[in-house]
Amino acid sequence: MPPLIQSWLLQSVVIFLLFGSLAGVLAGVLLVFRPQSFQRLGARLNRWISTRHLDTLLERNIAIDPWFYRHRIVSGALILSGAVYVLVFFIVTLDREPAIAGLAARLDYPPALVGGLLDAVVLSALLGALCAVLAALFMLFRPSLLRGFEQDANRWLSLRKALKPMEIPRDTLDRFVLRHARQTGVFLLLGGLYTLVFLLLWLGRQPV
Q: How far apart are CA 97 and CA 26, in angstroms?
């Protein structure tokens, strides 16, 4: 990874931790000295956001298969052209050794790791292109053979059950914190102060 990106990521993490430490200190002070204010603040912030509208969007079935069958000559020719281009590029045009050397130098990764990743990408692209060639040929000459595969592949899987646990509010942690407000506040205050002092000392030792 380039040093500039590493420095930027490190600064972002440090700033995030500094803000988190300040928030922990403020929350600890409220819990120790004004737990009622913390409870009122929590009641305002704990607004329930339902995901039912997201369920509705995800449960909408959008069928694009009729368009492909209606324009099967054009869509089949385009898919076949793209698949052939991918095959020619990765089989004929791509020079493996210079590509690995260039990617390893740019990403600062070992050539062996880059070579393995490149081989995986090339293999995936070739398999996908071969499948696209078969689908395009079937679409151009025997589209009826795709209908059975299409019916099996286009089985509708509902996400309503998977997303249902997200619709259940859970306030166990809030009730535990309010029940042990002062003890929790002391831990948050000490932890926030320790992290804040540690980060400030670390920042003070960094070169300008």
A: 56
Domain assignment present for residue 208? The answer is no
Percent of the chain with pLDDT over 90: 15
- Distance between CA atoms of residues 22 and 38, nearest Å: 15
16 inside domain: no
Question: Residue 143 belongs to what H/E stretch?
Answer: none
In the chain, % helix, strand, coil (3-state, to 5) comes to: 80, 0, 20
d(CA 61, CA 53): 15
User: N- to C-terminal Cα distance for the chain?
Assistant: 22
Q: What pTM does this model have?
A: 0.49
Nearby residues of 101 by Cβ (< 8 Å), 6 or more positions away: 111
More confident residue, 37 or 125: 125
Please tell me the total count of domains within the chain: 1
> For a pLDDT cut of 70, what percent of the chain falls above it?
76
Please indicate, yes or no, if residue 106 is contained in any of the structural domains: yes
Q: Is 91 domain-assigned? A: yes
Identity of the residue numbered 112: A
Q: Can you give the residue range of the structural domain that contains 97?
A: 63-154
